[in-house]
Amino acid sequence: QVRLMESGGGSVQAGGSLRLSCASTTLTLNMFDVGWFRQAPGKEREGVATNGHDGSIMYADSVKGRFTISKDYAKNTLYLQMNNLKPEDTAIYYCAAGWSGGTFRPREYNYWGQGTQVTVSS
Question: pLDDT, tens digit, for every residue of 25-84?
Fold first, then answer.
C-alpha cells in the first residue's frame, strides 16, 4: 500500500511559522513530481508549492516569499517551511506525488497523504 504521511501541522498566531513534513515508506520521492496542496472549509483543493522530479519549483502567488518547499533525499522526506503565516493560510495541508509535471492540478497526482491541519489565528 502506497503511503504518504504528513506531520507538523498545528495552531499558530499570525506571523508565526510551521514546518510540514511528508515521508513515505513506499515511494522514493525524488523519482516523482511532488507537491503540497491545501483545502480550506468550503473551498476547492489548491496547489501551494510543487517540486518536480527535474528540480523545478513552483509556488502559488499567495505564498511566494513566505513558503519554501524542499526535499531531503536521504530521509526521503518532503518539507514545507511556512513563515509569516496568515489566517487565510488556515486549511488542511496535503502532500501528493505523481507524474504531474509539477502542475497545480490535483487530478494529476496519483498518491495523497491524509492531511495535516494548519490553523492560523489573528
Answer: 899 998 999 999 999 999 999 999 999 999 899 999 999 999 999 999 999 999 999 999
Instruction: Enumerate residues 6+ apart whose C-beta is below 8 A from 75.
Output: 23
The Cα 56–Cα 42 span in angstroms is 30
Q: What is the pLDDT of residue 100?
A: 85
Q: Give yes or no for a contact between 78 and 51, defined as CB atoms under 8 angstroms apart.
A: yes
Sheet holding 4-7, edge to edge: 4-7, 18-24, 77-82, 67-72
SS (H, E, C) the chain: CCCEEEECCEEEECCCCEEEEEEECCCCHHHCEEEEEEECCCCCCEEEEEECCCCCEEECCCCCCCEEEEEECCCCEEEEEECCCCHHHCEEEEEEEECCCCCCCHHHEEEECCCEEEEEEC
Count of CB atoms situated within 10 Å of the CB of 29 = 23
User: Do the beta carbons of residue 109 and residue 94 sit within 8 Å?
Assistant: no
